[in-house]
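help with these tokens:
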Amino acid sequence: MEICIVCYDGFDELDGVGPYEVFSYAARAGADCTVSMRTLDGQDTVTGSNGLTIQPDGPLADRTPDLLVVPGGGWNDRRDPSAWSEAQRGVLPERIRTLAADGCTVAGVCTGGMLLAESGILDGRRAVTHASALSDLRAYDDIEVIDARVVDDGVLTAGGVTSGIDLALYLVARDFGEEIADSVATTLEYERSDAIHITSDDD
């Protein structure tokens, strides 16, 4: 499984790095996955919302990963750069929409879920985002907001910041087994959350 975490100037560092660590440890524990941090345009460095500068692994370019993780950051402050400015620019939401149409599983962490909402791929689905942005998510008429840490309705969303770790651990358990997920949680000394809403055919 190829996992790409898309990063952009103003992204919340833990939104991206938390899942990155989970998937990296999962690979070491035997999961058949690779994880990388990628930008849309191949810029050499990206600076997060708290000032951390990282060197991405390369551009997302024309690749279609099996899983795309979209972090949030700076949404409520309407700062530039941020998830908010990425939504206004429109390029990232369009790429998210294209990748989803091509069969890529998409997951939003924190206000990264707002970028998924802007892309249209949450229409008709259940979702969650950071508590402070729930009113913005509710403004989309076709999205049902769920009170949960992680929501899996085909497209995945998670609440604020550290919930990205819960999202990644859930995906590791779902795709590679509970044993590997437990191993990763033990390594991280992290207590897995059971506040996960999974939409079934009966919902």
In short: The first strand starts at residue 2 and ends at 6. Residues 2-198 form a domain with the Rossmann fold fold (CATH 3.40.50.880). The radius of gyration is 15 Å. The helical segments are 13-28, 83-89, 91-101, 112-119, 134-138, 163-176, 178-188.
